[in-house]
């Protein structure tokens, strides 16, 4: 198949799974910038990059990772079932901001907004991206209340922990206490909480310390009865697959995610939220 044909067929899974362009235009879709970015990528991306991107997305679909649902998403579930608007605050560091993506439209929050609207037709979903690259948990906590007041979200996605685990100045007890304070603050604002743990990376000097910080988030999620998306487990599982593994999901720096990596996170989050909403106790 020639390159032009491949570009015609290129469709990110988070936006057009099981839909053609004709079907997509029939959806009420205010995300014009997102669509323009998709078109531009399809026209300009080299064939080799397109092939790698699609292999990465296929890798994601083979990873059986699910939310650790230690608690409910009652407010979010109720609004989704009633087809009421849902406001989501995505807060965190570079993985939320979208470092490594080809454009802001391919950050995980932007792709999650589209993925949720496809899974919940008729629901207006707004995901606010409040990611700031390089932040540790305490710096995010310092601005969390202001962001909660500004956005008044139904659901808060807090991607956290990578920079803390990589910083020798952050201790595990201090990190754990910070996360607990953040969860308390979110719940005080009557928002649902969903934590996203650290990315898997081979670029660590102390893997044991890094995994202890991953375990801290799991412990806090269970203790505070909130949901956790195990991004670390997802990426580590992908790294064990045959072929290029996790490299297909990473940007040129070999650390941050690329468009396919962020699409993977967005799609699996949307799927897991849909499955959670379908449960009668939500």
Describe it for me?
This protein has helices spanning 3-9, 13-16, 21-26, 32-44, 47-61, 74-81, 94-97, 108-119, 137-151, 162-166, 172-188, 207-224, 231-239, 259-277; strands spanning 68-69, 86-92, 125-131, 155-159, 192-196, 227-229. The chain is an alpha/beta fold and 282 residues long. The chain has a single domain (3-277), classed as SGNH hydrolase (Rossmann fold, 3-Layer(aba) Sandwich), CATH 3.40.50. The longest helix has 19 residues, at 259-277. The protein is globular and about 45 Å long.
**For the record, what is the CATH homologous superfamily label?**
SGNH hydrolase
Spatial order of the strands forming the largest sheet: 1-6-5-4-2-3
Number of distinct helices: 14
Which shape, going by the Cα principal axes?
globular
CATH architecture classification name: 3-Layer(aba) Sandwich
- Using the CA coordinates, give the radius of gyration: 18 Å
Structural class: alpha/beta
Name of the CATH class: Alpha Beta
CATH fold-level label: Rossmann fold
Major beta sheet, specifics?
Answer: 6 strands, mixed
Number of domains: 1
Spell out the helices and strands N to C: HHHHHEHEHHEHEHHEHEHH
Mean pLDDT: 83
- Kindly state the percentage of residues in helix: 40-55%
Strand fraction equals 5-15%
Number of strands: 6
Report low-confidence residues grouped into runs of 5 or more: 1-45, 47-52
List the defining traits of the structure above.
single chain, disordered N terminus, 6 strands, 282 residues, Rossmann fold, alpha/beta, 6-stranded mixed beta sheet
């Amino acid at each position: 198949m020639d390159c032009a044909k491949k570009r015609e067929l290129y469709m990110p899974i988070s936006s057009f799974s099981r839909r053609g362009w004709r079907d997509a235009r029939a959806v009420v879709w205010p995300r014009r910038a997102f669509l323009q970015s998709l078109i531009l990528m399809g026209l300009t991306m080299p064939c080799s990059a397109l092939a790698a991107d699609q292999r990465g997305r296929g890798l994601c679909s083979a990873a059986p990772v699910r939310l650790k649902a230690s608690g409910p998403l009652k407010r979010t579930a109720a609004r989704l079932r009633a087809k009421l608007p849902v406001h989501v605050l995505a807060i965190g560091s570079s993985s939320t901001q979208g470092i490594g993506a080809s454009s802001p439209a391919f950050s995980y929050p932007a792709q999650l907004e589209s993925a949720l609207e496809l899974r919940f037709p008729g629901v207006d979903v707004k995901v606010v991206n409040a990611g700031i690259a390089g932040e540790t948990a305490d710096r995010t906590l310092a601005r969390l209340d202001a962001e909660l007041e500004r956005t008044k979200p139904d659901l808060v996605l807090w991607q956290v922990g990578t920079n803390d685990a990589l910083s020798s100045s952050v201790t595990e007890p201090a990190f754990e206490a910070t996360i607990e304070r953040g969860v308390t603050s979110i719940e005080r604002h009557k928002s649902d909480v969903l934590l996203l743990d650290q990315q898997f990376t081979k670029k660590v000097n102390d893997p044991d310390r890094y995994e202890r910080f991953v375990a801290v988030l799991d412990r806090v999620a269970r203790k505070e009865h909130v949901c956790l998306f195990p991004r670390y487990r997802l990426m580590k599982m992908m790294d064990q697959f045959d072929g290029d593994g996790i490299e297909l999901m990473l940007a040129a720096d070999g650390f941050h995610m690329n468009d396919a990596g962020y699409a993977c996170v967005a799609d699996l989050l949307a799927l897991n939220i849909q499955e959670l909403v379908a449960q009668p106790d939500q």
